[in-house]
User: Fold ATP-binding cassette domain-containing protein from Thermococcus waiotapuensis.
Amino acid sequence: MSEGWNIVCENLTVRYGAGENRATALMDFNGSFIPGKITVVFGPSGSGKTTLLKAVGTLLQPTEGRVNYNGKDPYKMLRKELLDLRREIGISFQHPLFVSQLTLWENIELVLNSSGKLDERHRELAYSLAEQLGIKKLLSKKPSEVSGGELKRASIVMSLSKDPSVVILDEPTAYLDEESSKKILEVLEGLREKGKTIVVSTHDPELIRVADVTYRLRYGRVVEARGDSGI
Ligand SMILES: Nc1ncnc2c1ncn2[C@@H]1O[C@H](COP(=O)(O)OP(=O)(O)OP(=O)(O)O)[C@@H](O)[C@H]1O
Assistant:
């Protein structure tokens, strides 16, 4: 499957902690993420961007409200159905997770394998993404042997090489120089052309500029929504 999914959030609320420590990170988020559009979530640090991306990415069950993938709530799916859906979601978070004993390439293969996509087509896709993002020569290195920015780009290759229908990237251009950020934008524009559903959080004005739809968050609430997010 390569086309994107329609993701619709209804009154999505996420609270962390319990008792006196209970805090609302996301409040009543209503919005959608649609195929062939780059949807950007931005706002100050702590405004709930990562929380929203995790909830949309099926990694954090909302306290209230719903996420719908083509009309179905992943948090109510049977395990097998949820695992199949997760194979079609490529996520890269701010602090990338790698197995430290493995090379970058082995880490990429690990992700492909766990998605049932360890084949030539996906290996080639990984190589071409690595080339596009300027890290192909580093694939034989271990995570500790490359810079933070290089690791960030490797993590984006890792999440995209399985050719997911839904792409969720948390601050993909953070800590990157202008040239690397531009390459990430080009990758995102290519994914948009392919009709993927693209969800990105950022502080980067350039990324906000190329977005089709934007949600600005403040204290866990949407304070401004722009673009056509209708389905
Ligand atoms: N696991 C957690 N337990 C308790 N509180 C949390 C947890 N994760 C996040 N928070 C809190 O929830 C709020 C939203 O955090 P979140 O990481 O979603 O913000 P953000 O907009 O992504 O911030 P940044 O731009 O700094 O990455 C913050 O107040 C944060 O301290």
Notes: The longest strand covers residues 23-33. The pocket of adenosine-5'-triphosphate is lined by residues 16-17, 23, 25, 43, 45-51 (CB under 6 Å). Helices lie at 49-56, 79-87, 104-114, 120-132, 148-160, 178-193, 205-210. The two ends are 20 Å apart (CA to CA).
